[in-house]
Structure formats: structure tokens, C-alpha cells
Design goal:
It contains eleven helices and no strands. By secondary structure, the chain is an all-alpha fold. It is found in: Membrane.
């Protein structure tokens, strides 16, 4: 086939693809409600499947050491959900109290903040024309971003209460997935066409090797960092230590930017107490950074992703631009899956080309 004809075919395919995407976007009001219903119904199954994926290796280790499979599932299941349930039972009321206290002290923090802004404006009023205005625009932008962040956090908290019934189903679904894990694998095996089975096993194995250890390690690191930070804040006499520890632990899942995001609320609250508390808070944050970067992550997570930091930063910037905080959290796992997909696609087309030759 002539090269020009090939290019015409490719351009025609791209044009058709853009038309289909345009029509698909225009029909959003028709299919979006259906997608929302499917997502709401499948959400507990996705979360339960993720929890089962995390717990299954531990179950297999106990089973290989001679323990009955059902007993090992029951032990791990009770330890995990029992620990989570106990943490929620003890932690949520204390956290609600601290959130209420924080909301009551917001006027004092705001007054301190306004005092700083006024002093800053007075000191910079004599600066050259344009510089002062740019600083004020920067302060206004930071205020609007913080306000948007608070609205997003509150919206997610309210949605959790909306899904309380679906969330209650997660432990039961996770138990049956763990119990029938081998049966589910066999079902997927028989449903997969024969020509894709070997490639599918290799593909899922590479994703598990690249992503499984990273996710399990990150969860353990985040829980450790959150617990240590809450303990250190409590020892230092910082207000709302449990709440701040939870924020630092959750945001620590975001590489590079997470510790900075998690430290902002702690520094803001410390600034309303004293300069000494700001220094103590900064010291705690730097210590946590050192602990996480030099001890916990290398020991627990290792280098399971095998990706250059520049690619990770690019993924984080893209995820943050597309999905905000959720995009930042999911950026690295999605990048790991994309990497495996590209490697398998390259191997597939290389073998296909060699077979033709």
C-alpha cells in the first residue's frame, strides 16, 4: 500500500475518533446519571476488593505455614477490621471533638492571620510600584485556594455519611472475596479467551510486582508517620494532635508534595500559639521527613516502582491538575499501571513483528 494512502487512512481514523469523542461529550447528560449509579453500586465491591488484595498475601503466608485457610482468613479478617473498627470507635469521637474545638478557635486564628497580613502590607507599602500589588494578589490567591480546599474536604466528609450503608457492606464483601479467592481466580481464568490467558497472567503478575508492594508499603508508612506525628504533637503540647497526625498521615501518601501539604495546617495552628510552637512544629515536620525518607520508605517500600523521580513528579502535576487531591493520590499507581501496559504492548508488537519477518 502506498505511504500516502496509509497516511490518509490514519488521518481519517483520527478524524473519526475526534467526532466520536465530541458526540460522546455532548451526550454527557444522558450517560452520566447511569455512570453515577454504576459507580455508587460498585464502590463497596471495589473497596472490598482492594482490601482483600492487601490482606490476601498475609493469608497465604499463614496458610503455607500449616494453618487452616479458613482459620487464617478469620484471624487476619478479625485483626484488620477489628483494629480499624476499634480505631474508628476511639478515634472518631476524639477527632470530632478536636474538629469542633478547631472550628470554635477559627476566629482567633483568622484574627491572628489578619494581623499578620496588615503588618505585612504596612511593611511592603513603600516597595516599588507593582511589587506590592503582586504580593497582595498572591495572598488573595492563597486564601481562595485554602477556602476551596476546605470546601472539598467538607464535601467528601458529607459524602461519607451519605454512603454509610454501602460502607457497612464492605467487611462482608471482603470476607467472601478472601474466602473464595481461588474460585474467583478460576472464574476469571475460564472467562478469559485462551489466546489471552498467558499474556494476561504475565501482565497481572507484573502489575502486582510493581504496584502491590508499593501500595502495601505506602499504607504502612503513612500509618506509622501519622501515629508518630500525633504522638510528637501531643508531647510538644500542640493543639489538635490527633487531627494533625491524621492529616499528615493521609497526605504522606503523595510523594514529594504530600509532607508539604500535610504540614500547612500544623504550621497555621502553631502560628496562632507562639513563635516557639512554630519552631517546634517545623522541627517535628523535618524529623518526620528524615524518618520517612531515609528509614521507613527505603525499609518498607523500597524501590518497587523502579521509576525516575522526574516521571513521578510529572504524574503528580498532571494528576493534581486533573483530579485535585484525589488525582495526586492516584497519580503514582496509575503511572505504574501505564508503565506496565507500555512495556507489555512493546513486547507484544515486537514479537508480532518478528513473527511476520
Amino acid at each position: 500500500m502506498d505511504i500516502r494512502v496509509k497516511w490518509f487512512y490514519r488521518l481519517g481514523f483520527l478524524l473519526l475518533l475526534f467526532i466520536v469523542i465530541y458526540i460522546f461529550v455532548k451526550l454527557t447528560p444522558l450517560w452520566l446519571p447511569i455512570v453515577n449509579i454504576i459507580f455508587t453500586v460498585s464502590l463497596p465491591f471495589l473497596i472490598a476488593g482492594f482490601i482483600s488484595y492487601l490482606l490476601h498475601p498475609v493469608v497465604e503466608i499463614l496458610h503455607e505455614k500449616g494453618m487452616n485457610r479458613g482459620l487464617s482468613i478469620a484471624i487476619i479478617y478479625l485483626l484488620f477490621f477489628g483494629g480499624v473498627g476499634f480505631g474508628i470507635y476511639k478515634g472518631i469521637p476524639a477527632m470530632i471533638i478536636q474538629v469542633r474545638e478547631l472550628s470554635e478557635s477559627v476566629p482567633d486564628v483568622a484574627e491572628q492571620y489578619r494581623h499578620w497580613v496588615t503588618a505585612f502590607e504596612n511593611k511592603t507599602s513603600h516597595w516599588p510600584f507593582g511589587v506590592h500589588e503582586r504580593l497582595e494578589d498572591g495572598i488573595t490567591m492563597i486564601e481562595s485556594r485554602l477556602e476551596q480546599l476546605m470546601k472539598i474536604v467538607m464535601a467528601y466528609l458529607m459524602r461519607i455519611f451519605d454512603f454509610i450503608l454501602l460502607i457497612a457492606l464492605i467487611p462482608f464483601i471482603a470476607f467472601y472475596i478472601l474466602k473464595d479467592f481461588d474460585s474467583i481466580k478460576k472464574m476469571v481464568w475460564y472467562l478469559t479467551p485462551k489466546k489471552w490467558r498467558s499474556q494476561g497472567i504475565a501482565f497481572l503478575g507484573d502489575i502486582d510486582a510493581s504496584l502491590g508492594g508499593y501500595i502495601r508499603g505506602q499504607i504502612l508508612v503513612c500509618a506509622t508517620v501519622g501515629t508518630i506525628s500525633a504522638l510528637l504533637f501531643w508531647i510538644a503540647g500542640m493543639d489538635y494532635p490527633l487531627l494533625l497526625g491524621a492529616i499528615i498521615g493521609v497526605t504522606n501518601v503523595i510523594p514529594y508534595f504530600g509532607p508539604i501539604i500535610g504540614a500547612i495546617p500544623a504550621v497555621i495552628i502553631a502560628s496562632s500559639i507562639s513563635v516557639k510552637m512554630i519552631i517546634i512544629t517545623a522541627a517535628i515536620v523535618f524529623f518526620l521527613q528524615f524518618l520517612e525518607g531515609n528509614i521507613l520508605s527505603p525499609l518498607i517500600v523500597g524501590k518497587s516502582l523502579h521509576m525516575h523521580p522526574l516521571f513521578i513528579i510529572l504524574a503528580l502535576l498532571t494528576g493534581g491538575e486533573i483530579g485535585g487531591l484525589v488525582g495526586l493520590i492516584l497519580a503514582v499507581p496509575i503511572l505504574a499501571v501505564i508503565k506496565v501496559c507500555i512495556l507489555h504492548a512493546r513486547n507484544h508488537f515486537t514479537k508480532k513483528k518478528e513473527a511476520v519477518l
